[in-house]
Amino acid sequence: MKILITGGLGFIGLNLIQSLGSENEIVIFDKKSLGSVCEMYGYGNTRFLHKSHIRAAKGDICDEKLLFSILNATKFDCIIHLCAISSVAEAESNKDECNRVNVYGSEVLLQTLSKSISKNAGIIFTSSREVYGDTKGQMANENAVMNPINQYGKSKLKSQQIVENYAKTNHNPCIIFQLSNVYGGYFNKPSRVIPKFSAKLMAGQEICVYGGDQILDFVYIGDVISCIKKAIDVLSHTKLCERFILSSAKGVRLKDLVLLLENEWQTKAKVCYESRRNFEVENFIGDNTKAVKFFNMRFKDITQGLSLYVRLCQANRLVLKHTQKELVC
Question: Which of 60, 62, 138, 221 has a CA 20 to 30 Å removed from the CA of 86?
C-alpha cells in the first residue's frame, strides 16, 4: 500500500507509523521536519522513521502547489488526514489559525487530490468527539445531534462535512473516526491531561483541575491505531463512506482521574480546583458499538490503559516533565 499521512509527525501519526509494516510505502507530510522531531523525542525512540519505506516532506497543509507535487508524484492508495490544530484551548485562543488549518487545509487537500493521479485513493479522517458538544449525560452514537460548543469542535465538524461531501461526490471510499480523548503510548503532548497530571504528580507539584466534575471518555492510543490499520485494509477493497466513534464507552470524572493516577503511580497528589472553563465540554461518553462490531474491537477501559501507560513510562525510564516542549511520554 502507498499511504500519505498528513500531520504524520504528531501524536497519532508517529504511533501509527511505528506500527505499520515495511510492506507499505509511507509519505509523511507535516509542518515539522523529521530532524526536529528526532531531536525532540530522541533518535533512539524515533529510529523507525529512518527506514527505507518512509519518506517525509515538510510543508503547510494549505500549500496547494506543494501538495500537488506530492499527490501527483506517487499514486497513493490511501490518504490519512491527521493534520490539525488539535488542542481545544489553542483553537479557542487562535480561532483564525484553527479555521485555516482545520477547515481550509482540508479543502485544499481534497481539491488538490481531485486533480492528481491519486484522486481515487481511500480517505481516512480523524474527527473528534468535540463535534457532539455536551451530551448531557446521554451516551452519544453516530446518529446523535452534532452541536459543538467550542472552536475546535466547530472546525472539526466543518472539516468532517467537507471530507464526507467530497468522498460521496467523487466516490472515494472513506472512513471518519470521531475520537474521544486519546492517551497512552509515546509522543503525547505534555499539555494533555494525563501526561500533564502525571508529570505534576511525579514532580510533587500541584495539579490544577478546572472543574473536576466533568465526565469524559478516554480511548487508548493502541486501540485507535488498531482501528486505523483495519480501516486501511477495509478501504483497499470496499467502497463505503462511514463514521465511527472510537471510545471506551465509559465515563470518568476528572477529579476521579487524579485518584486513578495516584493509584498507578503510587504517589499522593497535591490538587487545587479552579472553575471549569466555558469552552470545555462537561459531559461526553461515546457509544463504540458500531466500531466494536465493524472492526471486531475490544476497547480498553481507563484503568487498563493507565496501567499500560505507566508501565511503559517506567520500563523505558521516561522522564516526565511539564514544559512547553513536547516529550516522549
Answer: 138
